Amino acid sequence: MADSSAAPAPAPAPTRKYIFTIGNDCLASVAKDPSGKDIDALQQHMKNLPTTSTPFFFNALCDPYRDGADFVRGYPFSLRAGVLTAVSHGLWLNIPDYDAPTQLVKPLERNSRYVDAVMTIPKGILFPTCGMNLAFNRELIGPAMYFGLMGDGQPIGRYYNMWAGWCTKFLFPLASRVICDHLGLEVKTGLPYIWHSKASNPFVNLRKEYKGIYWQEELIPFFQSVVLPKDCTTQVKAKIGKVDEYFFKLADAMATWIEVWDELDPSETASAALPNGAAK
């Protein structure tokens, strides 16, 4: 994991505003754009995060803050201020980020399609999060980026980043007491691209993923319908715990994560005013 600071010596994590995560199989080669120029992924993330997102009304030119773009005719002026961007979700060239069944069906498929676009994920819409090329504003949603309880001894793998994405998109208030309810934070996806150099073993992946593939059919409707009262932690345990007892452990682990986060980073920097008021 890396971040955006160019300081000569690493500082404690709470002093860093932005965090950048990249997969260890994405470090061997630098991706190139269609002109052959090396892509500076971190630089693009730092363009995405400081500019606001526009989740309430789709702009036909995608991100209006890109060079040569703006809000098109007919875009409501009342919505142009947008909301704060919490996450910049980048994509990959070469090896696609597929699940195991798709890997087995398309073992030789490679992604060479470079889409020169950045767009806001609309409000209320989930998306598959990949931690291989991800940057986020630690001050806004740091504790929400909890990458699941997975690994040796756990019944599920390769879904840690999906869990982080689902929670980040819908459960900001669950993540930390310093984040106000319904902040209206949002996610951008698209540029930058990185070069994903190595495909993992689909048979190993299937063993790790098969419960996640099955469970997500129940988890996703929960995230789509959840209402966030003050006792939202209890709601998560009660609703998702019915899927499998693993989620009781996961809920306890998330609570522990938040307690540690609040202890190490008690600041209330996430209470900054939104540029366009509270989420509608």
Structure write-up:
This protein is of the alpha+beta class. The chain has one domain. The chain is built from 8 helices and 6 strands, in the order E-E-H-E-H-E-E-H-H-H-E-H-H-H. The chain has a 6-stranded mixed beta sheet with strand order 1-2-5-3-6-4. Helix 7 (232-240) runs antiparallel to helix 8 (246-264). The longest helix has 24 residues, at 202-225. The protein is globular. Belongs to the RGP family. InterPro entries: RGP_fam. It is found in: Golgi apparatus.
Helix content: 25-40%
Quote the distance from N terminus to C terminus.
34 Å
How confident overall, as mean pLDDT?
76
Radius of gyration equals 19 Å
- How would the global form be characterised? globular
The assembly state of the depicted protein chains is single chain
User: Which stretches of 5+ consecutive residues score pLDDT under 50?
Assistant: 1-12, 171-182, 268-280
How many beta-strand runs? 6
Largest sheet geometry: 6 strands, mixed
Q: What is the count of distinct domains? A: 1
What portion of the residues fall into strands of 2 or more residues? 5-15%
Strand order of the largest sheet: 1-2-5-3-6-4
Q: What letter string, H or E per element, gives the SSE order?
A: EEHEHEEHHHEHHH
Counting helices, strands and paired strands, the structural category is alpha+beta
* Number of alpha- plus pi-helical segments: 8
Pfam family, one: RGP
Keywords: Cell wall biogenesis/degradation, Golgi apparatus
Main location: Golgi
Family: Belongs to the RGP family.
